[in-house]
Design a protein that fits this description.
By secondary structure, the protein is α+β, with helices and mostly antiparallel strands. The protein has one domain. It has six helices and six strands; from the N terminus they run βαββααβαβαβα.
């Protein structure tokens, strides 16, 4: 079984995503590192839980969004009025329910989370409004549903000090996503130190 150790909390990637991945491949070797979202264990001694991207989306994003929308039926009805939803590109709709289908220059999750939550709640887009619901910037139709605005369902799990981006609210899904994101490697620490010294 592979043993992974935390190296650093890298914070928000945005459009630097591909460059960051190339850098980690260069430093650690492809397959020798991963990004994981770590939920702290209980005070009673339960171990931390580290989930990779798709599983972390299913657990941390979806649970937050489903609780948020279940508590706000009017917002849920509003979302369902649109033909579909997107984050950073209309091509996002082709990702469907698959978090790993990332076709844009930066990672999009909230649109996929909304689709999954609608499916879990037995709801669907109706097309009453003929446009896409854009879950993005402050001037977008779905701004309030962005991860910087939706509260994280277990705020006590957010690792401190927070790595929340300036554009997101403390205690939000985005706060958790960036604060609990770790670069992990299975390369022994002494090997990494040697590589960093050029040995």
């Amino acid at each position: 079984m592979t043993e992974w150790r935390n190296v650093v909390r890298p914070g928000y990637f945005g459009k630097r995503r591909d460059a960051m991945i190339l850098g980690y491949d260069s430093r650690y070797g492809a397959g020798n590192w991963r990004l994981a979202w770590v939920a702290p264990g209980s005070p009673a001694g339960a171990p931390d839980v580290a989930l990779e991207f798709a599983d972390a989306c299913k657990v941390f994003y979806e649970e937050s969004y489903i609780q948020y929308l279940q508590d706000r039926p009017d917002d849920l009805d509003f979302i369902c009025e649109f033909t579909e939803c997107m984050d950073n590109s209309p091509t996002n709709i082709h990702s469907g329910l698959d978090y790993t289908a990332q076709e844009a220059s930066s990672t999009h999750i909230q649109d996929i989370a909304v689709r999954n939550v609608l499916a879990r709640l037995g709801r669907a887009f109706t097309g009453k409004r003929t446009e896409l619901l854009i879950i993005r910037s402050a001037d977008s139709s779905g701004f309030k549903f962005g991860p910087g605005n939706v509260p994280f369902y277990r705020p006590e799990m957010i690792t401190q000090p927070s790595r929340c981006p300036s554009w997101a609210n403390a205690g939000s899904v985005e706060d958790f996503w960036q604060s609990n994101k770790y670069l992990q490697t299975n390369v022994p620490a002494f090997v990494v130190r040697a590589r960093n010294r050029g040995l």
